[in-house]
Structures are given as C-alpha cells and as structure tokens.
Amino acid sequence: MSTSTISVLSEALNTNTPVKKPLRSMHCHSCNSCVARYDQHCIWIGQCIGVGNHFYFLLFLLFLTIVNIWAIYGTILYWSEHCTTTYQQDGAWTSFTQIAYCSPWVLYIFILICFHTSWATFLLVLQLYQITFLGLTSHERITLWRQSKHSKHPVSLRKTPYNHGCLQNTADFFQCRCFGMFKPNVIDWSKQYTLRFHSLKDQSTHSV
C-alpha cells in the first residue's frame, strides 16, 4: 500500500474545525455538522449520507429504481392500449409524434421517470461497487482519484486500509453473517481515530 494512499485516508485533524475528528468523518458545510463515515451530501434527499443512514440510502435507491421501472412499463402498456401507432409499422419518428399527440401528459411523465431512473440506477450501481469492491465511500473514492492526478506515486483505489475483499466488505457494511459464514467487523466510526480497529463485539484489536 502506498504512503500517499494512507496519508489521504488516515487524516485525523479536521481542517474546518480545530478539533480532532474520527477517521472517515467529514465536516459538511451544507448541514454544518461533522458526519461519521461521510459518503456525500445528497441533493435528492437534502441531507448528508453517513454511517447512520447509508444503508437506508441504498434501500431508497433500490426501491426508487424498482418503482421507476414499474412506471416505465406502465406507460408503455398504456400507449400500446390507447395509441394506434406502433414502432414496427410506422417507425420511430412517426410513433413518437403519434404518442405525443395521443397522450402528451403521459409522455411528459415518461420523460421525468426516465430521468429519475437514470440517476437512481447509476447511483445504486456505483454505491454497490464502492462498498463491495473498494470498501470506500464516495468522498474517499473522489479524494483518492484527485490525489492520483497530482501524485508522482501510484495511488490505488483497491489497496486501502478499508478494503478487506469483496465478501468481507459486503459483510461489514450490511452486518451480514450468512448463517455464520462471515464475521463482520463492528466499528464505531464516530469514535475511531486510528487505523488499528477495535471491534465493538469482543473489543479485540487487530491491525489492518
């Protein structure tokens, strides 16, 4: 693991406030608060994503994607029953104009649904990739990516103190034991100041 990678992730002093901050925390100017295991400030829900609500943010993205896909199917089904035009018979442009004339309001809703489906699906896939394959938050991934642009030494997104492998990363985030197959690490990120992690379950210390 490169020194530059560790230095970026293990910064312990908050540059915005003259107090010591836990690892992976970040001061959000929008919320005016320090968020443990800071991921991002989401404009879609108007608050920060951190250790306390990261899991529920994933559920929000998942259900939003499912509902949007169901709504897209519903609009296509409505057009097939109420509009006489078809793509196979009339072509793309004629079908579009006929649909717009047949039900402009449904077309407007369909465009909005497609827009929200695109960003929700993208965020969901990106979040799962970061959690599973990188073990990083969005803020940490962006910070390392920016660091790699200006660093003379290679900065790897995979070789960080928080990446324990795909299965262990998933178990740690979701706190999933899978019938005893995994042993997730339970870490209080609001009180973690060093790279030596203390498990809340057995209070044992192990190096990363």
From TrEMBL:
Q: Which Pfam families match?
A: DHHC (PF01529)
| First-tier enzyme category under EC | transferase
Q: Which InterPro entries match?
A: Palmitoyltrfase_DHHC, PFA4/ZDH16/20/ERF2-like
* Keywords tagged on the record: Acyltransferase, Lipoprotein, Membrane, Palmitate, Transferase, Transmembrane, Transmembrane helix
Q: Which PROSITE patterns match?
A: DHHC
Q: Where in the cell is it found?
A: Endomembrane system
User: What domain of life?
Assistant: Eukaryota
Where are its TM segments located?
Answer: 55-79, 105-126
The topology of this chain with respect to the membrane is:
Multi-pass membrane protein
User: Where does the signal peptide begin and end?
Assistant: none
Keyword check for Transferase, yes or no.
yes
| Keyword Membrane in record | yes
Please state the Enzyme Commission number of this protein.
2.3.1.225
Which residue range or ranges hold the Palmitoyltransferase DHHC domain? 19-142
Q: Which reaction does it catalyse?
A: L-cysteinyl-[protein] + hexadecanoyl-CoA = S-hexadecanoyl-L-cysteinyl-[protein] + CoA
UniProt lists the family membership as follows: Belongs to the DHHC palmitoyltransferase family.
What does the record's free text say on domains? The DHHC domain is required for palmitoyltransferase activity.
Recorded protein name is Palmitoyltransferase
Report the source organism: Phrynosoma platyrhinos (Desert horned lizard)
